[in-house]
UniProtKB/TrEMBL annotation:
<dbReference type="InterPro" id="IPR003439">
    <property type="entry name" value="ABC_transporter-like_ATP-bd"/>
</dbReference>
<feature type="domain" description="ABC transporter">
    <location>
        <begin position="12"/>
        <end position="269"/>
    </location>
</feature>
<keyword id="KW-0029">Amino-acid transport</keyword>
<comment type="similarity">
    <text>Belongs to the ABC transporter superfamily.</text>
</comment>
<dbReference type="GO" id="GO:0005524">
    <property type="term" value="F:ATP binding"/>
</dbReference>
<dbReference type="InterPro" id="IPR003593">
    <property type="entry name" value="AAA+_ATPase"/>
</dbReference>
<dbReference type="InterPro" id="IPR032823">
    <property type="entry name" value="BCA_ABC_TP_C"/>
</dbReference>
<dbReference type="InterPro" id="IPR027417">
    <property type="entry name" value="P-loop_NTPase"/>
</dbReference>
<dbReference type="Pfam" id="PF12399">
    <property type="entry name" value="BCA_ABC_TP_C"/>
</dbReference>
<dbReference type="Pfam" id="PF00005">
    <property type="entry name" value="ABC_tran"/>
</dbReference>
<protein>
    <submittedName>
        <fullName>Arginine transport ATP-binding protein ArtM</fullName>
    </submittedName>
</protein>
<keyword id="KW-0067">ATP-binding</keyword>
<keyword id="KW-0813">Transport</keyword>
<dbReference type="InterPro" id="IPR051120">
    <property type="entry name" value="ABC_AA/LPS_Transport"/>
</dbReference>
<keyword id="KW-0547">Nucleotide-binding</keyword>
């Protein structure tokens, strides 16, 4: 797949997003674009508002102000903030994973991927008991769902574990399964909340390879929250940095890594110390990469 140009169409446009909880402004006047075919990382210190942004994009919260526009490849556009919660995935084609793994631990690995495809199976059944009767239209939909699930199990090296309970998988494999489950919904935008959390270096490498595959081989753009700076710098095409709900940087990984405002935010210094941090940028960037 050809990499998008810098002026490629935005798959997601966030316009002046504000989210208030009473008197608390969790996100303030945030604007950015995620290009189609890119991996865009949303980073920042704890409490920066990253998960709140995800919750607005995926329908868990309705923004206090602002617009969230998702553009499909066919030219259609959807204002996510106007869609009912359940329609963000079905109509907007936005899928999400969470900080804490949310697999069905007692179901098999294969069944977890079939559950993700319940909507097309229900449509094929006519929302009735037709599926129980085994009519051809339902059998075809069921066969397609199983084929898609097995295809993804092959991609994440879990086809041999298809009949095992998901809860028996190692932690890193559960992370990959959760991403595969989201991909079974064929999303336009895949939102991943700290997918590398708790992974060892080998598992992080497997995750990076999977995300590159999703970016390069599918019509799916990736938006991720991540605290592991090695993952962010290695696989991201574009990075947006938040601090206290406000965007402080927006650019390539290299640009963001050298931005004194980003360094200051991660080190916890005050605004007046930014110039001093900038003067020591070479030393501090190394510290940021190791410690963030």
């Amino acid at each position: 797949m050809t990499r998008p140009s810098p002026d490629a169409e935005a798959v997601l446009t966030v316009d002046h997003l504000t989210m208030r909880f009473g008197g608390l402004v969790a996100v303030g006047d945030l604007s950015f674009k995620a290009r189609r075919g890119d991996i865009t990382a949303l980073i920042g210190p704890n409490g920066a508002g990253k998960t709140t942004v995800f919750n607005c994009i995926t329908g868990f919260y309705k923004p206090t102000e602002g617009k969230l526009t998702l553009a499909h490849a066919d030219g259609s556009k959807h204002l996510l903030e106007r869609l009912p919660n359940h329609a963000v995935n079905r109509i907007g084609r936005v899928a999400r994973t969470f900080q804490n793994i949310r697999l069905f631990q007692g179901m098999t690995v294969l069944e977890n991927l079939l559950v993700a495809q319940h909507a097309p199976l229900m449509r094929a059944s006519g929302m009735t008991v037709l599926g129980l009767l085994g009519l051809p239209v339902y059998r075809r939909a069921e066969a397609a769902a199983i084929e898609r699930a097995k295809d993804w199990l092959g991609r994440i090296d879990l086809i041999d574990r298809a009949d095992d309970p998901a809860g028996d998988l190692p932690y890193g494999a559960q992370r990959r399964l959760e991403i595969a489950r989201a991909m079974c919904t064929e999303p336009v935008l895949l939102c991943l909340d700290e997918p590398a959390a708790g992974l060892n270096p080998r598992e992080s490498g497997e995750l990076n390879a999977l995300l590159r595959h999703i970016r390069d081989a599918h019509d799916t753009s990736v938006l991720l929250i991540e605290h592991d700076m090695s993952v962010v710098m290695e696989i991201s095409d574009h990075v947006v940095v938040l601090d206290y709900g406000v965007k402080i940087a927006d650019g390539t990984p290299g640009e963001v890594r050298a931005d004194p405002r980003v360094i200051a935010a991660y080190l916890g210094v005050e605004d007046e110390e930014v110039e001093a941090v900038e003067a020591e940028v070479g030393l501090t960037v190394t510290h940021l990469e190791v410690e963030a």
